[in-house]
Amino acid sequence: MLKLCHINKAYPMGESQLPVLKEVSLSVSKGEFITILGASGSGKSTLMHIIGCMDKADSGTYELDGVRIDSCDEDELAVIRNQKIGFIFQKYHLISQYDVLMNVMLPLLIRGQTRASALPEAEETIRKVGLWDRRTHLPKELSGGQQQRAAIARALITKPAVLLADEPTGALDSKTGQEILSLFQQLNEAGNTIIQISHDLNVANAGRRILYLQDGILSS
Ligand SMILES: Nc1ncnc2c1ncn2[C@@H]1O[C@H](COP(=O)(O)OP(=O)(O)OP(=O)(O)O)[C@@H](O)[C@H]1O
Ligand SMILES: [Mg+2]
Asked: Hey, what domains does the chain have and what are their CATH numbers?
């Protein structure tokens, strides 16, 4: 479903280049729940940006759901991000002036769906993440865990090929973090493919396969 082969990425550092990802290869099948575990600075977010089609590798190939991502231009990548990837971030990134319903239905409106057709889909997804009684609340009226549930609903609503989560429990206390990980497990059992990134072994153990990223080298 998702296949990276020999991905390299370096950032310019003065006159020279700082290698961050070194010959990274990764295959993920539909329905997997994997964690990429690595220390701070190991290249996790850089890899996540490449998997999420937000950044391009310097070399190597990347195929997602039958599409060769490495040969896509910016416009094609924007469409792929909207259609195939559901992003979940450490800090939720909800839009503060919109309520939960509007935040969750936004990706469908961006696609050009009408409000009337997006609304029932948003309601169904909000139910799925356990946020029904908070659907008309603003982000600032929600706890961190509830905000993350809203962000997960927003990621799910497009029925993406993969859910991509960078430190999804990093801003939460351990009990609330566990609740979010249980939700991921439930979503995975329902057939969603999940890739999460973390530096925390407890978080990683919620997934079904762990890969280790160390100084830009990925190993199993
Ligand atoms: N835009 C950039 N320009 C230059 N160097 C960068 C850039 N982004 C990241 N780096 C460097 O690349 C390395 C890997 O960074 P990355 O953000 O991928 O690490 P990480 O594993 O996500 O770390 P953390 O756990 O702290 O979030 C670091 O040494 C970082 O300083
Ligand atoms: Mg990071």
From this structure: 2-219 (3.40.50.300)
